């Protein structure tokens, strides 16, 4: 230490790497450090440096320091330097002492350590007290506090702990940047796939939905559609027929959105779009008693649905078969045949049923039974009934003493062969009300009911078979810009269909004593089909596979499925789907256990990281508080010896220090509170993850 003296010019190295000159203002032999000061930007700045740091930037002093340690320096030089350490007033220079030169920023140790004495008149020079001007260096203190943070972050600790120290804002920015890069990469990949898919059918506006539906269908197992329905064993049966695409739909490049994996299951692929215009498919599964695709014929549908009910008709039963569906879905074609029964009507259910009935009547077993067939054909338009075989005369429905339905004014025509039945049907179809809508040029605007009435020789009712061609369930979009009359027709149609559903619901519920037949004329005329002791009902839902009719198709299927569910039929066929991603119950339970274990381990690691992060913040707080306390002790020690003319400077510096002290304590307290809260949340989350999960909701 005896090679240094107050006022000596040395080179120092700043934290940013700059090297410049400074003047030693104080020497602390106890701490083995010196306090240096320099002028910068019109201000006096200073900092405390260890001896070793100072020697590293001053090679000449390092050599002298080494020689001094080896005992090669003179005692005179040592005594002069020691005297200079304890005096703030520099003695008058003599011929035996070097003259101290005022330090400047350009002075170095090489040209200012020893100065030749001059012959000037000795004068007592009073050097201003550096401590009176500057009692602490704010910049140095802040640098030391920052070093504490830097030393803690760069400490050799696990990588997971280092990442926990990062600011939440930094972590959030990194996460968003990573997600943005992944999203852009996915968008580029999706764009390439879309370009490849578009080449398959470039003129189709629905090409994207088409490819997504084909991708879904590739994961299904399709089985041959073999109807195995035994209608005679069920009181209510529900079937679905999917018609082929019409010419109008083909011209519009509409695609099919229906899949039929087997004869009892129908899947609807509803096209959807997200807010960002991303297209996706929403799948709906419906199970029915029988499903027919677009290749099914009227003959095949008749054999699977209506033919088994003919025997019930001859067994004094009341049988009803009706076609339900959207406008233009093929109801009239199924019931009457091509062109609404006016041409080639032998293909419809009307003609097929007539042929079956007369084949049985003419069989050897029933030839002498005395039974004969009367036919009636009427329609329900609005909420009124009109006889199609009697110039559309209005009909009324009443109940007799036996609470049996009696239709007042209904004209019946006895038929002895199926050909006569076809003539009656042709005559009635010409009288039926039809209209034009945006969905169908010849839309049926009424419910047509054709009845086979079986009577004995006494003219008493033996059985009744009703074939109902319902009007289409209407949407406002289907009627387009039609007049008010067309819209009223649609409202009446929907009201009657709702009443029909309510009657079916009450009929299938044994707890319901009252069936609301009076809600609609349709249900009033079909009352005996619902309350008869031997009554059976078959519903054929007609749907379109086109993407433009997807909403109407879903409404029809939901209506039909609701009718099936009203029967309490729990035999669901949805599980017949052989989908690749479906797991068994045991596999699901095992997967659930593994998921819970992984979640528990992840929560424990999160708790550990939170704990280590809190410990690190606590260590940083302790080091910063120790540094602040040390500087506070220096202020207290200097306060007892401060000169009267330096009290104001002392007070100003003390105020700055207290402000720094307060800010640091507030920041550390906030960080500790945040870490404690985060640790508490991690512990609570870990406890929740260890709780046993609730019972699994199995598929119905």
UniProtKB/TrEMBL annotation:
One of its GO terms (biological process) is microtubule-based movement. It comes from the Eukaryota. Residues 184-201 have a biased composition (Basic and acidic residues). The lineage of its organism: Eukaryota, Metazoa, Ecdysozoa, Nematoda, Chromadorea. Belongs to the TRAFAC class myosin-kinesin ATPase superfamily. Kinesin family. KIN-13 subfamily. One of its GO terms (cellular component) is kinetochore microtubule. It is found in: Cytoplasm, Cytoskeleton, Spindle pole. GO terms for molecular function: ATP binding; microtubule binding; microtubule motor activity. Residues 184-203 are annotated as: Disordered. Residues 235-566 form the Kinesin motor domain. This is Kinesin-like protein. The keyword Coiled coil applies. Keywords: ATP-binding, Cell cycle, Cell division, Chromosome partition, Coiled coil, Cytoplasm, Cytoskeleton, Microtubule, Mitosis, Motor protein, Nucleotide-binding. Its main location: cytoplasm. InterPro entries: KIF2A-like_N, Kinesin-like_fam, Kinesin_motor_CS, Kinesin_motor_dom, Kinesin_motor_dom_sf, P-loop_NTPase. ATP binds at residues 325-332.
């Amino acid at each position: 230490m005896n090679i240094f003296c107050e006022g000596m010019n040395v080179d120092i190295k700043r934290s940013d790497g700059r090297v410049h000159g400074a003047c030693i203002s104080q020497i602390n032999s106890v701490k083995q450090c010196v306090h240096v000061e320099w002028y910068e930007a019109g201000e006096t700045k200073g900092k405390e440096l260890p001896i070793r740091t100072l020697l590293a930037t001053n090679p000449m002093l390092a050599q002298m320091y080494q020689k001094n340690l080896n005992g090669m320096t003179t005692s005179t030089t040592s005594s002069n330097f020691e005297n200079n350490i304890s005096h703030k007033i520099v003695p008058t220079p003599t011929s035996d002492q070097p003259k101290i030169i005022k330090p400047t920023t350009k002075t170095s140790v090489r040209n200012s350590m020893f100065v030749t004495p001059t012959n000037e008149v000795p004068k007592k020079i009073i050097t201003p007290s550096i401590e009176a001007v500057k009692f602490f260096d704010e910049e140095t203190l802040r640098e030391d506090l920052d070093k504490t943070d830097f030393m803690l972050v760069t400490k050799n600790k696990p990588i997971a702990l280092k990442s926990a120290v990062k600011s939440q804002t930094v972590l959030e920015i990194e996460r968003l940047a990573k997600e943005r890069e992944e999203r852009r990469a996915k968008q580029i990949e999706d764009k390439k796939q879309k370009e490849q898919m578009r080449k398959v059918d470039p003129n189709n506006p629905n090409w994207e939905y088409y490819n997504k539906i084909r991708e879904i269908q590739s994961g299904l197992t399709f089985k041959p559609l073999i109807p195995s329905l035994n209608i005679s064993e069920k009181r209510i049966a529900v079937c679905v027929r999917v018609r082929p695409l019409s010419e109008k739909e083909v011209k519009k490049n509409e695609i099919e959105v229906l899949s039929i994996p087997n004869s009892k299951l129908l899947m609807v692929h509803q096209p959807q779009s997200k807010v960002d215009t991303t297209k996706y498919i929403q799948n709906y599964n419906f199970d029915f008693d029988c499903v027919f695709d677009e290749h099914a014929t009227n003959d095949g549908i008749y054999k699977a649905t209506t033919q088994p009910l003919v025997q019930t008709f001859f067994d004094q039963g009341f049988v009803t078969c009706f076609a339900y569906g959207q406008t233009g879905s093929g109801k009239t074609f199924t019931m009457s045949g091509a062109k609404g029964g006016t041409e080639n009507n032998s293909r419809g259910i009307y003609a097929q049923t007539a042929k079956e009935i007369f084949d049985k009547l003419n069989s050897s077993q029933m030839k002498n039974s005395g039974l004969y067939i009367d036919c009636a054909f009427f329609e329900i338009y609005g909420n009124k009934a009109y006889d199609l075989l009697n110039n559309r005369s209005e009909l009324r429905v009443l109940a007799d003493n036996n609470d049996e339905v009696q239709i007042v004014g209904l004209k019946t025509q006895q038929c002895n062969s199926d050909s006569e039945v076809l003539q009656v049907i042709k005559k009635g179809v010409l009288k039926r009300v039809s209209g034009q809508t945006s969905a169908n040029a010849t839309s049926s605007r009424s419910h047509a009911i054709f009845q086979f009435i079986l009577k004995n020789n006494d003219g008493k009712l033996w059985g009744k078979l009703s074939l109902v061609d319902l009007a289409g369930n209407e949407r406002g979009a289907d009627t387009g810009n039609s007049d008010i009359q067309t819209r009223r027709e649609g409202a009446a149609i929907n009201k009657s269909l709702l009443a029909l559903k309510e009657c079916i619901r009450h009929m299938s519920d044994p707890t319901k004593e009252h069936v609301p037949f009076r809600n609609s004329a349709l249900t009033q005329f079909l009352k005996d089909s619902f309350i008869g002791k031997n009554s059976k009902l078959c519903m054929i839902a007609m749907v379109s596979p086109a993407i433009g009719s997807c909403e109407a198709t879903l409404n029809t299927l939901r209506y039909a499925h609701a009718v099936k569910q009203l029967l309490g039929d729990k035999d669901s066929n949805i599980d017949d789907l052989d989908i690749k991603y479906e797991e068994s119950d045991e596999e699901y339970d095992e997967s659930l256990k593994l998921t819970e274990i992984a979640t528990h381990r992840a929560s424990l690691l999160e708790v550990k990281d939170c704990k280590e992060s809190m410990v690190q913040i606590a260590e940083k707080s302790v080091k910063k508080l120790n540094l602040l306390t040390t500087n506070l002790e220096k202020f207290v020690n200097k306060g007892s010896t401060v000169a009267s003319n330096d009290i104001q400077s002392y007070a100003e510096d003390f105020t700055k220090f207290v402000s720094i002290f307060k800010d640091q304590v507030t920041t550390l307290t906030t960080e500790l509170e945040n870490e404690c809260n985060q640790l508490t949340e991690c512990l609570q989350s870990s406890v929740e993850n260890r709780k046993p999960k609730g019972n699994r909701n199995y598929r119905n």
